[in-house]
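Hi Q.,

Before the meeting this afternoon, I wanted you to have the heme C prediction in hand. No need to reply - just skim if you have a minute. The sequence and ligand are here:
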Amino acid sequence: MKTLKCVGLLAALLAGSQSFAAPERIGDFNLIDETGRAHQLSKFGYQKALVVISQANSCSTSQELFSEYKILETKWDNEQISFVMMNSSINDDVEAVRRFKNSYNPDMPILMDDTQLVAESLGITKAGEIVVLDPNNMTILYRGPLDTPGARGEPGTTFLRETFDAIAAGEIGRDTETVSVDFEAAPGCALEFPAKVTSADDVPDYETEVAPVLIENCVGCHIEGGIGPFAMNSHQMVQGWSPMMREVIMTKRMPPMQVDPTIRSFENARTLSVEDTQTLIHWINAGAPRE
Ligand code: HEC
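Predicted structure with the ligand bound:
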């Protein structure tokens, strides 16, 4: 915490574009990569950090940085820092990402954030943006570009590398503040978030939008006398369970028996569609309102 705080003051003096806030807590998530392998944040707990590099197939500015990412990975891998890419672009499906991986060989798994909900929860807005996560304390350590350009001829600053130094030195804890570097000026490509909730009017409606998704996907088991441990039989009940519902949906625990439908399918495999997942999570994030 101390080290990072010093970095913060320096940054404020140099650029004024970087800020410190209380540690940003994040929920667990589980994403499938382009080969169908699952990557769950909490399962990286044997590592000191997970670095998520936002990627989009059409973003050539971020592709130009692939060799730099590789240098970072090679350097920090020994310090128990894992690297993944994440595709949250609405324009890239898993087939396109597989082709991309074959052509550019970034040498890291590319996690498919097809609902864009992980990007939303991490505050990612552009391809090229980097987020460093602490999988033990479930916090964001760093969010911003690879490098921060220097102001008026000053050499550039490297808050990301300073974050890595602090991680390697074991200076990271539950209360480590989130370093957030303004991404506006950094190379990258803006992502579109058409489903994002930006005003109260966008919050999905319980009766007409949320309840039908629950009936279709959950209530078969979550009913009085059903095999689910609680019945989704009233708004109050669903609202009370909603933080837990968010967790099981974001980690793909519910509905049970999920597999990547593009790799293989089981007869009774169930997955929530992208839209249904967004409906439930956006509603829960808004406090699971009755109306
Ligand atoms: C095929 C039956 C089935 C379906 C469909 C199903 N569940 Fe479950 N659910 C269970 C069972 C069994 C458990 C208890 C065992 C477990 O936690 O895995 C459970 C547990 C849960 C829990 C509690 C987890 C905990 O750790 O206490 C939540 C929350 C939940 N389900 C939400 C959902 C949601 C949301 C859906 C729909 C998207 C859903 N379930 C669909 C059977 C089901």
